[in-house]
Task: structure prediction
Amino acid sequence: MNTTATRAEITIDGRRLSYLDFGGTGRPLLALHGHLAEGATWADLAAELGDEWRVIAPDQRGHGDSDRATTYTRADYVADAVALLDALGIGRAVVLGHSGGGITAYQLAARHPERVVALINEDGPVAQRAGGPSPLAFLAAVPYSAPTRDALLAGLGPMAPMFAASVRELADRGWRLPFHPADTILSEEGTHGDRWADWTGSACPALLVLALRSQALPREQGHAMVERRPGTTLVELDTDHFVHTADPAGFATAVRTFLGGL
Result:
């Protein structure tokens, strides 16, 4: 069973991209987290999938142990995914993503179809209103670092329990969050707009896991995504947007079932 992971890194244009490789001899599955998360969010799923799948989960740019970047465009995230597959010598993989990671997953499938065997989109929308404040604008008031762990958690207020296990110690410089608030706001704003062409631009088998109480993907839009993209399976789960943490058993069952049919 895939219960532990090996942490490694690659260098892209002088920038470190850290990733977790849950190992095994199974087929490769590239798992892309969303904002406010990191590669470790897929540990439970990797354990559920066992040795049949080798789950590779990067800390995407600006997240976790990966370096901050100067830009956070959609093309940047796709290029990072391709660079990681190239570095690992993986020609084709199943690609799974949550939220913004789901957008990256279906953009990777559309722009590099030769690299993607199948696509799993966990509550990643295709149409978000451009302009206006980011739903993550509240992060502007959150400290990125503090002299002590307690001080950092105190600065997070009610969000402290969410990040208590993932804050990082800096060598002789205190503690930091696993993401930079300003970077995250900028990155989230880059997900806005009409992405229907990317969603419908690939032909591989796909699974859309739709949260019935999603804060990001309206149910009507999710149903339209399935109707407009042939070969797409829909699973609806009664959770909020963070499906794989809110209902890990239901999410794992949906993913295992889909993968078993490939």
Summary: The chain has ten helices and 13 strands. Residues 74-87 form the longest helix (14 residues).
